[in-house]
Structure to design on (169 residues):
């Protein structure tokens, strides 16, 4: 039994060492949708940059992520991913003003652009295919942000999925 455990651990370690470091590029769909670029080093620590669109504006997100293998015999390349980071960018929003003139309701819409920045958190799972250089992840990325159409905003509903291609696999 000890020999079998040792063989399994050694094969898992060589599988992980053969894939990292890795540079990945891909597309993310979710609350912030856009392009994703990620680098994962030998210590299973990753740095991810997401350039995306949200709230009629642009957002640049930077995350530092930690990977923890979910060791199962069928899904040896499944990882739990957690991370923390920050974002900055701008949003566009509309403000509607109403007034009455001669018993008629009139309105005017003001278009505004505002810079935003804030903090991001990430938790998810990521699968790295062995036979092809693709990675797939599903994540939950809540964030808080300053400025914009409100002075302070918390969004707890940013879910997303990402397909990435490994450039050096």
């Amino acid at each position: 039994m000890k020999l079998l455990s040792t063989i399994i651990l050694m094969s898992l370690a060589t599988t992980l060492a053969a894939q990292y470091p890795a540079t990945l590029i891909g597309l993310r769909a979710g609350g912030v949708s856009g392009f994703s670029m990620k680098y994962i080093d030998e210590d299973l620590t990753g740095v991810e940059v997401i350039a995306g669109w949200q709230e009629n504006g642009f957002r640049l997100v930077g995350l530092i992520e930690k990977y923890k293998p979910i060791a199962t015999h069928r899904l040896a390349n499944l990882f739990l991913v957690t991370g923390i980071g920050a974002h900055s960018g701008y949003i566009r929003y509309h403000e509607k003003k109403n007034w009455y003139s001669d018993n008629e309701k009139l309105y005017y819409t003001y278009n505004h652009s505002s810079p935003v920045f804030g903090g991001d958190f990430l938790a998810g799972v990521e699968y790295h295919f062995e036979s092809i250089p693709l990675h797939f992840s599903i994540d939950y990325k809540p964030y808080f942000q300053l400025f914009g159409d409100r002075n302070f905003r918390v969004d707890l509903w940013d879910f997303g999925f990402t397909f990435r291609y490994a450039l050096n696999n």
Q: What stands out?
A: Residues 3-18 have pLDDT under 50 and may be disordered. The CA atoms of residues 15 and 77 lie 9 Å apart. The two ends are 33 Å apart (CA to CA). The chain has one domain: 19-166.
